Amino acid sequence: MADNIKAQEQHHLDGVIQKIKVAETSLQKKIKATKKDVKDINANFNNDVRLKTETYSGMMETAMSIRQQQQMLSERENRQEYAARELGTLTKLEVNPYFARIDFREGDEKRDETIYIGMASFTDRPDHYLIYDWRAPISSIYYNGGIGDVTYQTPDGEQTVDVKLKRQFQIENAKIKTVFDTEEVVGDQMLLDALSNRSDTKMKSIVTTIQKEQNQIIRDTDSELLFVQGAAGSGKTAAVLQRVAFLLYQYRGNLHSGQIILFSPNQLFNDYINQVLPELGEQNMVQMTFYQYSSHRLPSVQVETLAQRFDEQFEPHAQKINDVKGSLDYFKAVSAYANHLNTEDMRFRNLMFNGTVLIPKEKVEDIYYSFNENYNLRNRLDATKEQLLKILNRKIHVEMRKKWVEDAIQNLSREEIQQMHKEGEEEILDADKEFKFLARQIVVKSFRKVQRQIVRNHFLSINNQFVHMLRNIPKIIHLADFDITESDWQADIKATVGRLKEGRLSLADASTYIYLYDLMTGKRGDRDIRYLFIDEVQDYSAFQLAFLKFSFPRAKFTLLGDLNQAIFTHENSRKLLDELGSMFPEDKTRVVQLTKSYRSTAQITNFTKHLLTNGEDIIPFTREGDLPQVYVEDGMDSAVEVVKKQAEINLADHETTAIIGKTLKECQQLTDKLAETGVKATLIRTENQRLVKGVIVVPSYLAKGLEFDSVIMWDASKECYGEERDRQLVYTICTRAMHRLTIVATKTLSPLFDTVPTTEYEMK
Ligand SMILES: Nc1ncnc2c1ncn2[C@@H]1O[C@H](COP(=O)(O)OP(=O)(O)OP(=O)(O)O)[C@@H](O)[C@H]1O
After folding, report:
1. Ligand 1 within 6 A of CB of 209
2. What is the reported pTM?
3. Which of 340, 379, 388, 383 minimizes the C-alpha distance to 361?
4. 345-385 pLDDT, tens digit each
5. Domain spanning 212-309+525-595 has what CATH number?
6. Which residue minimizes the CA distance to atom 8 of ligand 1?
7. Selecting from 3.40.50.920, 3.40.47.40, 3.40.50.300, 2.40.40.20, what CATH number does the domain 602-763 have?
8. Which atom of ligand 1 is the closest one to the Cα of 562?
């Protein structure tokens, strides 16, 4: 690039930065003035507000003026907060205002227009944009095409412009480091630079190098269901985080980050991605795992953890049961079962008081089914509660005459009596009335617990109902279709009842349990959530997805997945797509396929794609590195020695290294062995830990969605990965590596690597 262009652009840059500084100064003044205002308002609070509490109108006047003061205060505080946020944006822009320039001609216009694109918009006067936010409709030109005709979406429909120049910048501390013109969509050089960087314990934004297909995902506003199927490392997670930033920009004022929820594979992953949105100047959306959601909905039940679930899936018997419990058929069966509760079979509990039955369950049942068939579960329950509260009220008189009440009155202290009068606002007239008054107070107070139980549906017996449902399932679903016998099912019920008694539930049962309870109580779901994202959707069952759709009825769904990385559902994951299709309107469903893999070097991607039986569609990004290295050692000690040496080499090269083992047990053993040889490695036992720099040892199921400079797969032997169904797990492990992949096995290498041509790796 000619030096004079660089000089011209630096000159332009200096001008923009100058204007940003002016804007900053004026904002700072504004903030200072508002701060002073707030201080003054607070200081004058006592003077301005005259407290008149003698008369009713005086009190009203006082309340009004306090309200006025508060409104003024909160308006100033909002203004201050907004200005502070704006100042934060300007401070960021001041050092790195933009990353691209586009010159283009629109329609019949006589002159070219020039725009600069950066992390946020900046105007020096109304409608005079010196920088356009990367999310503005016009900025799409940058992502959608090269030179020549490029189309982009505007609020008024599609628009085509003739792009004359596309220039990219790398700016550091207000100085242009490099500037180059490109004819491509987003220059490969820039992408290569971005991808060659070392990994970090935190994911970064990809705004400057978003690819065209990713841009489609980011800016989709029409789909009710957007399903992104993409190879490992194809930027699904990256794209979706930019999408959240885009949506918050597009619907500013109507959508806030609390209305967006992301279901992620594990807590480590949450931690890994939580800097991206703040880096983009936005607040993080709500992030949780499905396990956390279920546990939150069932505070008194211990839901099976990810690790327990991972270990359990290796039993073929449990797998079949899980398959049926995860199916859409099962979801429909639970719905049908709940529906029939409108006419019979609802299970109730006695309402107890002081150890005796106050309202027997038979009475509750009579009330519940006394309403006609036009009632649904929701209003049937409401009407029942109303009746029960009335009955409770009527029982006050009877209870007042009981001996325990008389005793309680005898034991009342003077203070307690005074307190009751304060609450009851009743004057003492004569002894009899006083006795009745106190008796009533005592009973009403003691009945509060029962009242709460009625309001909170404690007269429903969800545990019994759940077990009753399980017993009825064979009548609704043909279990033989799932290769399950009646006795298999009965055995599973027994196991479930056993767990329930200990206050535990499997994750599959937990979803069903909550769903059943929601249907029984007529819950309509959380209507506030507008966008719901699920990462690694291949690990969800159709049941869970249908349940989430039910729980967030107004949310648009964006689902990201790689059917080749299912760690739980295996072959079933392909069925998932069809089942999903049936849950959303066809014309509002969009499936996007991402085939290019960005994370790893070409060598690693070429190696890993052969691990898949249908991996031919995966296109590596041309970033060069070493061939993956495979070691097969005779014994444990020499294998550990290889791991040790490799970890040391990686450390010396400043590479973050993850040693990924299959289960926690294997990881624990290796960490102990490494410690004996003097290697310090951090074992990640649970998802609640933090990722740290240096060498970490992590079980495969916690490595989902993460990436590391170097990966050492341990122990890639036949003994550990002997089954065909482990293929996706092996693929997931190997695709975590960005720059370097080492595979270490003891005795015999897993046959799953047989599909990889020997030219794709180096056998050591
Ligand atoms: N357009 C891009 N520009 C720069 N980096 C990118 C781009 N797209 C993806 N990447 C990088 O590639 C890596 C992989 O992306 P990401 O984790 O989003 O992939 P993924 O599809 O979610 O992978 P997986 O399914 O294996 O978890 C990340 O480091 C991401 O920053």
Report:
1. yes
2. 0.86
3. 388
4. 999 999 999 889 999 999 999 999 999 988 999 999 999 99
5. 3.40.50.300
6. 235
7. 3.40.50.300
8. 25
